[in-house]
Design goal:
This protein is an alpha+beta fold. The protein has 2 domains: 277 residues, CorA soluble domain-like (Beta Polymerase, domain 2), CATH 3.30.460; 58 residues, Magnesium transport protein CorA, transmembrane region (Methane Monooxygenase Hydroxylase, Chain G, domain 1, Up-down Bundle). Helices cover 54% and strands 16% of the residues. The chain is built from 8 helices and 9 strands. It has a 7-stranded mixed beta sheet with strand order 4-3-5-9-8-7-6, with helices on both faces. It is rod-shaped.
C-alpha cells in the first residue's frame, strides 16, 4: 500500500515521505575502509553511528528505509544536505536525476528487481568529501552484495580508490541489475514468440499486454539514467577525481546499451502483437474459407433437392423408375465437379 501525506501548502524542502507504507525500523550500516583496514557495523540509532565515524577513512553509510522523515532530516542536518535534496530522497516517485551542490553531489535513480514481475525501489546516492551516503527505499536485499564482498576481502580497486569510485561502483551495480533483468525478459520473449507462432491464444495476448506494460515501466526507469550520468560526467565538482571519469564514461555506455535493449524489446513485442492479430485473422479467414466452400458445394444440391421436394402432382420425373437414382448421380456429379474446380484454383 502506498501512503502519501498531504503536501498541499507546505513550503519547498518540506521532508514528507511518499511511498509504500512500512513499519520496519530503519537500519543504518556504516562501512569504513582504507587500503589496509576495514570496519563494518550495523546501527538502529543514528547517534550511535556518528560516534563510530573515523574521519581518516573512506566512509559508506547505507540507510535501509526512507519512511522515517525525522531520521532523514537528522541525517541531512548532520551532513548539511539541502532540504530540497531530502525532499527528493523521501519521495519514492521522484524521477531519476543528478544535482550538484557546493559540498556534495546527489544521484537519484531506480534500482530494479525481478521475481515473477518487475519491481523497483528508489536509490539515492549522496557523494561528499571522503563519504558516500546511500538511501534505499526497501529493506532487505539489494544489488550491493558484490561491492561489500570486494570491500571485505580487499579485492579490486574499490579499497584503493576514494569515495567517488565507491559512488560509481554503487551506480554501476544498480545498472548491472538492468542487464540481468533484461536477459530474463529476453528469454520470456523468445518463449512467447515460439508459442505465438505455434498456437496463438487469448492467454498469450494477456501476456503480451503484461510484458508491454513492463517495458513501459522499464523505459520510464531507464531513460533518465542517460541524462543523469551525462550530467555527472559534465559536472565540474572537485569531489569526482579525473581518474574516475573513464569509469563514468563506461557507465554511460552501459546505460545507453540498456536503453537500446529496452527499445528493441518494445519493438519486438509490438511486432509480436501484430503477428498475433495476423494469426488470429488468418485462422478466421481459413474457417470462413472452409465454410464458404461447404456452402458453395451444397447450394446447387440444395436447389435440386428443393425442386424435387415440391408437392406438385404433374412433375414428369416423379413417376420415373430411375428418377431417384438419376437425381443422386446429378448431385454427386455437381459436388465432385466443384471440388475438382476448387482444387485446381487452389482454394482448398
Amino acid at each position: 500500500m502506498e501512503i502519501s501525506q498531504n503536501k498541499t501548502g507546505a513550503p519547498p524542502g518540506t521532508v514528507i515521505y511518499k511511498g509504500k507504507d512500512s513499519t520496519e525500523k530503519i537500519k543504518i550500516t556504516l562501512i569504513e575502509y582504507n587500503e589496509t583496514e576495514f570496519i563494518e557495523k550495523d546501527f538502529y540509532n543514528f547517534s550511535d553511528c556518528l560516534e563510530c565515524v573515523d574521519p581518516s577513512m573512506v566512509k559508506w553509510i547505507n540507510v535501509d528505509g526512507i519512511h522515517d522523515s525525522e531520521l532523514i532530516e537528522k541525517i541531512g542536518k548532520q551532513f548539511n544536505i539541502h532540504p530540497l535534496t531530502l525532499e527528493d530522497i523521501v519521495n519514492s516517485n521522484q524521477r531519476s536525476k543528478f544535482e550538484d551542490y557546493d559540498s556534495y553531489v546527489v544521484s537519484i535513480m531506480k534500482m530494479i528487481y525481478y521475481d515473477t514481475e518487475i519491481h523497483s525501489e528508489q536509490l539515492s546516492i549522496v557523494l561528499m568529501e571522503g563519504m558516500v551516503i546511500s538511501f534505499q527505499e526497501i529493506h532487505g536485499g539489494d544489488a550491493f552484495d558484490m561491492i561489500r564482498s570486494r570491500l571485505r576481502q580487499g579485492k579490486g580497486r574499490v579499497r584503493k580508490m576514494g569515495a567517488d569510485y565507491l559512488a560509481y561502483a554503487l551506480m554501476d551495480a544498480a545498472v548491472d541489475c538492468y542487464f540481468n533483468i533484461l536477459e530474463k525478459v529476453g528469454d520470456r520473449i523468445e518463449l512467447l514468440e515460439e508459442e505465438l507462432l505455434d498456437n496463438p491464444s487469448k492467454e498469450m495476448l494477456q501476456q503480451l499486454h503484461h510484458m508491454k506494460r513492463e517495458m513501459i515501466f522499464l523505459r520510464k526507469a531507464v531513460w533518465p539514467m542517460r541524462e543523469l550520468i551525462s550530467n555527472l560526467e559534465r559536472s565540474e565538482t572537485e569531489l569526482i577525481r579525473p581518474s574516475t571519469d573513464i569509469y563514468l564514461r563506461d557507465l554511460h555506455d552501459h546505460s545507453v546499451r540498456v536503453i537500446d535493449t529496452v527499445e528493441t524489446f518494445r519493438d519486438l513485442l509490438s511486432g509480436m502483437m501484430d503477428i498475433y492479430l495476423s494469426s488470429v485473422s488468418n485462422r478466421m479467414n481459413e474457417v470462413m474459407k472452409v465454410l464458404t466452400i461447404i456452402t458453395t458445394i451444397f447450394v446447387p444440391v440444395t436447389f435440386i433437392a428443393g425442386v424435387y421436394g415440391m408437392n406438385f402432382e404433374f412433375m414428369p420425373e416423379l413417376h420415373s423408375r430411375w428418377g431417384y437414382g438419376a437425381v443422386w448421380i446429378v448431385m454427386l456429379a455437381i459436388i465432385i465437379s466443384l471440388i475438382v474446380y476448387f482444387r485446381r484454383k487452389k482454394w482448398m
